[in-house]
Amino acid sequence: MLCARPAFVVNDDPDRTVIRLTAKGFDCRVIQDIGPELDRLVQENAGGRLDLDLDRVEYVTGAGLGKIVVMNRRVKAAGGQFSLRNVNDFADEILRITRLDRLIDVRRKLPTKGITRTAAN
Questions:
Q1: What are phi and psi of 16, to 5 degrees?
Q2: How many beta carbons lie within 10 A of that of residue 66, not counting itself?
Q3: Which pLDDT does position 13 carry in this prediction?
Q4: Dihedral of CA 33/82/70/74: which sign?
Q5: pLDDT interval class at 1 (50, 70, 90)
Q6: Which residues pair with 12 in a beta bridge?
Q7: Residues 114 and 77: beta-carbon distance below 8 Å
Q8: pLDDT score of 18 more than 90
């Protein structure tokens, strides 16, 4: 089942539910818009596997981190598994600095094929 939402898309697979954020940022405004829907999805899928895909998210604020912590706590309390997928460098650094990477399963975004980086002279 594929459901489109303004700031996220939900893919229900037999073994997991993936919430793919489509907003540029995961901040207070986005949480106000989609928070109740995220809470509903967490409640419906709490005992299973729930992944939050941050592939299109460029930044995460404190409010976004708070929402991630609450989602993780609720899913795990119900015996489920929660993970963040496609986490970019910026979000990964914030998760490491706050040590949330020790509490939450974080899967970094894979580098884009065909792009090479060179050191500046």
A1: -165, 160
A2: 12
A3: 83
A4: positive
A5: very low
A6: 17
A7: no
A8: yes
Tens of pLDDT, residue by residue over 46-83, are 789 999 999 999 999 999 999 999 999 999 999 999 99
- The torsion defined by the Cα of 115, 99, 64 and 60, in degrees rounded to 10, comes to -30
Looking at the predicted structure, is the pLDDT value of residue 117 above 50? no
DSSP H or E run through 86? strand 81-87
Beta bridge mates, 8: 21
Distance, CA of 4 to CA of 17 (rounded, Å): 14
Query: Which residue reads 């939402």 in tokens?
Result: 5
Mean pLDDT, residues 78-97 taken together: 94
Structure tokens at 37: 């829907």
Neighbours of 88 (CB within 10 A): 16
Domain 2-108 matching CATH 3.20.10.10: the answer reads no
- Using alpha carbons only, give the angle 92, 7, 64 rounded to the nearest 5 degrees: 40
